[in-house]
Specification:
The chain is mainly alpha-helical. The protein has a domain at 14-123: Ribosomal protein L17 (50s Ribosomal Protein L17, Chain: A), CATH 3.90.1030.10. Helix content is 73%, strand content 7%. It is built from 7 helices and 3 strands, in the order αβαααββααα. The protein has a 3-stranded antiparallel β-sheet. The radius of gyration is 63 Å and the shape is elongated.
Length: 297
């Protein structure tokens, strides 16, 4: 029997239970919301809320105590840096358990446990305005008078309710008209932007066409100039060829004339050489006789 035993061991031994609660607390502090069974969520709430209370006092001692339970440096840093500022004005009750039904298979009751200050749906919900009217009149009154005052209060409450409804409808219509006007303005702006873009696109197309025409004209001019330069080059080459032919002919004529002159000179020289050979032997004899005569004298 478990008389006086308030701890739910969850079918686990002590070491396994502490490790499981530590891991679940780290997941809750990191993700701000986890899904688990209802029994585990209730045990986790008892485990994690004292840790959240310790995080409000940012000292080395508090950090060491929290780390001894969580054994995770990143989670401890996030707890003292972000979560502690978020829960600074809350005195307890840092978590909320929301039941989600029963799990298929073992039919265990499931729930979501989350940090209260990180639920944007519940925290941003505005409280409804309530109009409270006090009854007028004091002292003892007759039943008829009290009945009349009750009727007046009911009528006044209905009038106030109708006025609030009318004001709400007027506000809704004004908001709807503003949204319609904004939508029309946005559509007009978009239409103007599209028109401007189309005009810019047409101008770009016309500019491209003009540039293409200019390029075509430039290519035609270049081709005409190239043809003219080719014709001029051919004419110059023909003239140069004729000049070279004339020069070659003149050179050949000059060479032939020189050959003819040389032949004539050679023939003349040949005709003169026999006379020289006949007189040449006599001259040395005559010289020798003259020398002999001088010696004798």
């Amino acid at each position: 029997m478990r008389h006086g035993n308030k701890v739910n061991h969850l079918g686990r031994k002590t070491g396994h239970l502490k490790a499981m609660l530590s891991n679940m607390a780290c997941s809750l502090l990191e993700h701000k919301r986890i899904t688990t069974t209802l029994a585990k969520a209730k045990s986790l709430r008892v485990f994690v809320e004292p840790i959240l209370t310790k995080s409000k006092n940012d000292t080395t001692h508090s950090r060491r105590l929290v780390f001894s339970h969580l054994q995770n440096k990143e989670v401890v840093t996030e707890l003292f840096r972000d979560i502690a500022l978020k829960i600074a004005t809350r005195n307890g009750g840092y978590t909320r358990i929301i039941r989600t039904g029963f799990r298929l298979g073992d039919n265990a009751e499931m729930c979501i446990i989350e940090l209260v200050d990180y639920n944007e749906i519940y925290t941003n919900e505005k409280a409804k305005k309530t109009t409270r009217r006090s009854r007028r009149g004091g002292g003892a009154t007759t039943p008829s008078v009290s009945g009349e005052t009750d009727v007046e209060d009911v009528i006044s409450d209905e009038a106030v309710a109708e006025e609030t409804i009318v004001e709400d409808t007027v506000d809704d219509e004004a908001v709807a008209e503003e949204t319609i006007v904004e939508d029309t303005v946005d559509e007009e702006v978009v239409a103007e932007d599209t028109i401007v873009e189309e005009v810019v696109a047409e101008e770009a197309v016309t500019e491209e066409a003009v540039t293409e025409e200019v390029v075509v004209e430039d290519t035609v001019d270049d081709e005409a100039v190239a043809e003219e330069t080719i014709v001029e080059d051919t004419v110059d080459e023909e003239v140069v060829a004729e000049d070279t032919i004339v020069e070659e002919v003149v050179a050949e004529e000059a060479v032939t004339e020189e050959v003819v002159v040389e032949e004539e000179v050679f023939e003349e020289a040949v005709s003169i050489e026999p006379g020289i050979e006949e007189t040449s032997p006599e001259t040395p004899a005559e010289d020798s006789t003259e020398e002999e005569k001088k010696e004798e004298n």
